[in-house]
């Protein structure tokens, strides 16, 4: 099986590639044996794409890396040819950046996805796995979203992801393309670009700095270790039903304030290192996914507790300064 992974030099995509290629010492338990004969990464290497994320599998003869933009139909057409499956991660992914400027979010997340879907149709790709987010539902005060919940995105990021989800599902209904969509909660783990809250806080704390807490710190997120996310995607890739959406959650909801407390503890710092900043515009209050469907149909359940995952993540950032210092501009500072 030849698998094309878009955005495979990013945080989650690179974990998927490392998992597919079975990095020695990687936790393969509970991961379907997809046994790829070839894995192609198509990635534009934007600010968040980093070839160093693929260093552990760089020498695997099954890996091919193509630097290219999913918005360029000719490039996409050439790369998609010969693949059985596309797992589509490539996206502009940071909400704050989408508030500052929405154009790259719409062009990459919507039009880039369309270019990939068209190429998948042309080349008879057998399965298109579209990786999306719980943010497409907006915010929920109580209870949890099921997969048939109406979409009500609030940020330009989530609106562009919702657009791409609908487009992918429309290609299934209109053209019969085998599409499956996954929607997951907030990921954390090694190799996450230090603009997202957990690596931002951890790297600031390790550097002796302060951390910015939005508003009253009461926004609630469900935290999912990136490895559990990728296990869930692999299960959907292997056995998900065409045309269906599957939620992948971590099962641990925390307010941002509670999360901050855990990160301060893990880094041995106190609340004097926390600075309250004005709330993000249109900030969703709470996300919560019901994961009954993927659990019943595919046997998915998160396997890494937040306590163990955060400890491992903090240790990884402590041990891998050479990876993140060039990204935060703190090297030799
Ligand atoms: N991080 C999360 O918590 C989270 C949660 C839910 C869903 N997701 C989704 O998972 C996917 C991956 O997220 P991530 O956190 O790994 O993001 P990331 O920003 O770390 O990685 C995105 C990757 O896509 C590449 N890319 C961006 N624009 C491109 C383009 N036009 N052409 C080709 N490559 C391009 C980047 O170079 C980068 O390698 C995204 O689709 C995102 O919406 C992420």
TrEMBL record:
For activity, the cofactor(s) needed are:
NAD(+)
What EC designation does it have?
4.2.1.46
Instruction: Write out the GO MF terms.
Output: dTDP-glucose 4,6-dehydratase activity
Q: Which GO biological process entries does UniProt record here?
A: nucleotide-sugar metabolic process
Concerning Gene3D superfamilies, the annotation shows: NAD(P)-binding Rossmann-like Domain, UDP-galactose 4-epimerase, domain 1
What keywords sit in the KW lines?
A: Lyase, NAD
Top-rank taxon of the source lineage equals: Bacteria
The reactions it catalyses are: dTDP-alpha-D-glucose = dTDP-4-dehydro-6-deoxy-alpha-D-glucose + H2O
InterPro entries annotated for this entry? dTDP_Gluc_deHydtase, NAD(P)-bd_dom, NAD(P)-bd_dom_sf
Group of enzyme by EC: lyase
The record's Pfam families line, in alphabetical order, gives: GDP_Man_Dehyd
Domain spans labelled NAD(P)-binding = 4-312
Q: Which family does this protein fall into?
A: Belongs to the NAD(P)-dependent epimerase/dehydratase family. dTDP-glucose dehydratase subfamily.
- What is the protein name for this chain? dTDP-glucose 4,6-dehydratase
């Amino acid at each position: 099986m030849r698998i094309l992974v878009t955005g495979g030099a990013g945080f989650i995509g690179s974990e998927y590639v490392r998992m597919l290629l079975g990095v020695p010492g990687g936790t393969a338990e509970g991961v379907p044996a997809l046994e790829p004969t070839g894995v192609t990464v198509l990635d534009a290497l934007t600010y968040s794409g980093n070839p160093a994320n693929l260093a552990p599998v760089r020498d695997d003869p099954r890996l091919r890396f193509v630097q290219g933009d999913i918005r360029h139909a000719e490039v996409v057409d050439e790369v998609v040819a010969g693949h059985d499956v596309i797992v589509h991660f490539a996206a502009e992914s940071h909400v704050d950046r989408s508030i500052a400027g929405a154009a790259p979010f719409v062009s990459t997340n919507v039009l880039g996805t369309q270019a990939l879907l068209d190429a998948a149709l042309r080349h008879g790709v057998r399965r298109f796995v579209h990786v999306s987010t719980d943010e497409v539902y907006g915010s929920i005060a109580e209870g949890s979203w099921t997969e048939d919940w109406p979409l009500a995105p609030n940020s330009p990021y989530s609106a562009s992801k919702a657009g791409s989800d609908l487009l992918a599902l429309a290609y299934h209904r209109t053209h019969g393309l085998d599409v499956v969509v996954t929607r997951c909660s907030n990921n954390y783990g090694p190799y996450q670009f230090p603009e997202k809250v957990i690596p931002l806080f951890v790297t600031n704390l390790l550097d002796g700095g302060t951390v910015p807490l939005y508003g009253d710190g009461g926004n609630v997120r469900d935290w999912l270790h990136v490895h559990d996310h990728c296990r869930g995607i692999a299960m959907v890739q292997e056995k998900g039903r065409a045309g269906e959406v599957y939620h992948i959650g971590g099962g641990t909801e925390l307010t941002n304030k509670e999360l901050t407390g855990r990160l301060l503890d893990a880094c041995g710092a106190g609340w004097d290192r926390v600075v309250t900043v004005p709330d993000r515009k249109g900030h969703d209050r709470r996300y919560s996914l019901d994961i009954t469907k993927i659990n019943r149909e595919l046997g998915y359940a998160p396997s890494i507790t937040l306590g163990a995952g955060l400890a491992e993540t903090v240790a990884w950032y402590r041990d891998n300064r050479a990876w993140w210092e060039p990204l935060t501009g703190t090297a030799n500072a």
